[in-house]
Amino acid sequence: MARVAVYNEVTTYTGNVDSSTRVGATTPSPPQFRLGDDARPLRYAVELVVVPEHDTFSGSVTIELKLARRISILWLHGSGLIADDAHLETGGVKIPTRVESGGNQYLGFAF
């Protein structure tokens, strides 16, 4: 799950990460090389479930962000990762997001 912010507010992203699940089919254009300056991470909290006998892992991540401007999609580096659900949250209000695949390099969170 993930959250959204209003201009210049601190926002938190929370999402479940699974290396074995596939994401939605429609994909807006991800960045070409470097991520933009739309969001600056302030804190991370990661919980992973790793089973040595398995080739995959699962877990969740919470990222506290400061957004520089209003945006409709947030691109994050996610090489080899798949998010199966997400929401943005600001001011205690959870806003659903749609997880978008940006190829093998990026994950997009549209709201």
Write a concise synopsis of the structure shown.
The protein is mostly beta strands and 111 residues long. It contains no helices and eight strands. Strand 2 (39-50) and strand 3 form a beta hairpin.
Q: Helical proportion?
A: under 10%
Spatial order of the strands in the main sheet?
2-3-1-5-6
Strand proportion: over 45%
Number of strands: 8
Mean pLDDT: 76
- Quick one: overall form? globular
Number of domains: 1
Strand count, sense and closure of the main sheet? 5 strands, antiparallel
Distance between the termini: 12 Å
**What is Rg?**
14 Å
Structural class: mainly beta
Q: List low-pLDDT spans.
A: 1-11, 20-25
Order of helices and strands: EEEEEEEE
What is the tally of helical segments? 0
Could you characterize what this model shows?
It contains no helices and eight strands. The protein is mainly beta and 111 residues long. The protein has one domain. The strands form two sheets. The chain has a five-stranded antiparallel β-sheet, with no helix packed on it.
